[in-house]
Structures are given as C-alpha cells and as structure tokens.
Amino acid sequence: MLLAVDIGNTNIVIGVYRGKELVNFWRVGTDRKKTIFEYAVVISGLFSLNGLPAGSVKDAVISSVVPPLTGVIKETLSFLFDIEPLIVGPGVKTGMPVLVDNPKEVGTDRIVNAVGAYSKYGGPLVVVDFGTATTFDAVSAKGEYLGGAICPGIGISLEALFRETAQLPKVDFKKPRRVIGKNTIESMQSGIFYGYVSLVDGMVERMKKELSGAKCVATGGYASAIAHESSTIEVVDPWITLEGLRIIYEKNRSSLL
After folding, report:
1. Domain that holds residue 133
2. C-alpha torsion sign, points 73, 30, 22, 217
3. Helical H segments across 13-66, by residue range
C-alpha cells in the first residue's frame, strides 16, 4: 500500500491507498514541536486503531508547505515502515507544466491539487483550496498550471478579527440566520461567512473571464460550507490533494525502483 501525506500549516492529512483506492484517511493537527518518535506514536496508533498492519505500507509520498516538519515526517515514515518516501519538489515529475515566472515559488500543495483535480475533472479548471490560506489555482485545458491567487484563510481571518480588536469576541465559523446581523456575534459571523462566499464567487468569476469555460472545484476544510451558498463552486472534492500525491508517485515510481 501507498501512504500519501500532505503536511499543511494547520493539519497533516494522511491517506492510505491500495492501488487507486483510498482505503483510509486521517487528519491530525500540525505541531512543529513534535519529535520523530511523537509522530511515530500518532501514526502507528492510527494504523492500530484501524486494524492496518504497518508492514502493508511499501511506499510513501509527501507534500509539505512546512519545511521544518518535512524531514521529521520523512524520518518518521522511514522509522515506522522502513521505506524512503518521495518528497514532492523540484526535480520530481508531475506531468504538469508550471507556466509562472518562477515555478520554484509555487507551493507543492497547489501543484499537487492541480494534478489531482485535472486527472479527475479535466480542464480548464479553477481549484479553490480552503486551508490556512485560501488559494485559487488555474489549470488550462491542456493540463498546464497557469498561476492563481492567495488570500488569508477563514481561520486566520477569524483569529485576526478577535486578536486585533478590543471589543469583538472570538466566534466560531458558522452560517448565521441572516445576512443583516442583529447582534455582534451574528454580525461577525455574517461578515466572515457571506464575506468569504462573495470573495470566492468574485475571484472565481474574474478568473473564469481569463480562463473561458473553466469548471470550479473546491477542497479543504471549509469547502462544503462555502459551496452550499456559492454560485460558482461546482464540485467539492475533499481528497484532491491525496489523489494528486498518488498520481505524482506513480509518475516517479520507475525512477524510485
């Protein structure tokens, strides 16, 4: 089996593939202070709880936007499964041309998302990922990564609103009863929830003007909530990143043997 690991700023998403089938998946909190052995306890515990033998894992692939943790997770997987994980980065074949000024600047998660989405839905595409940052990525009909946009994520915005104001409370991300809030909490929730819906729809509409005929696919923790009110999100797919990792691993498999 193949272990696919996406290391994000807020969460680490782990998927277990048997061939092309995603048989298990987990989301654990990102903790830059954890050691190799602490992560080993977490991952081995997940395998044990789900009745998966550690010996069944033969390969692994990692995407990371948290450089200090990349080596930690790599060594953790080597320790647990006696394997040498593939780390997505420069020199790794993705099958997708990156048509931007400096391809090395693009986060690997964005490329992996684009690869996963294009493989399932074709192109042209706008891929929206609701992570620590909210990212918008454009993929051409030919499967070329064209660039995109980055804005603060929903969690960051909620935290900043609470932290940087003297009188506003900390609130959960939740769809309010109405757009026009009748109290402070409803007003904040309306601003974040409907503000993000409007942000997403506005950005996607503008990107579609530059990428005619594009389909919009969303992923990430808040994708379903936003998509319910969005007029531009057409598909919600929570496992695009893991699928992209699997595909990239397969493209590089022969060179790893």
Report:
1. 103-243
2. negative
3. 36-49
248 domain-assigned: no
With residue 79 as reference, give the H or E element that holds it: helix 67-81
Say whether pTM exceeds 0.85. Answer: yes
Tell the burial category of 222 from Cβ atoms under 10 Å away from its Cβ (0-12, 13-18, 19+). buried
If asked whether residues 39 and 160 sit together in one domain, one would say: no
Within a domain: 202: yes
Residue 169: DSSP 8-state: P
Residue 54 clears pLDDT 90, i.e. is over it:
no
Residues 6+ apart with CB under 8 A from 212: 124
Please list the active-site residues. 109
CB 41, CB 115: distance < 8 Å:
no
Please give the torsion angle defined by the CA atoms of residues 28, 22, 173 and 203, in that order, rounded to the nearest 10 degrees: 120
Span 6-23, pLDDT tens digits? 999 989 999 999 999 999
How many domains would you assign to the chain?
A: 2
Task: Please name the residue that has the structure tokens 């960051």.
Answer: 156
Q: Is 86 left (phi over 0), alpha (psi -120 to 50) or beta?
A: beta
Residues 125 and 228 in one domain: yes
Exposure of 32 in the CB half-sphere (CA atoms within 13 A): 8
Q: State whether 197 and 154 are in the same domain.
A: yes
Judge if 18 and 126 occupy the same domain. no
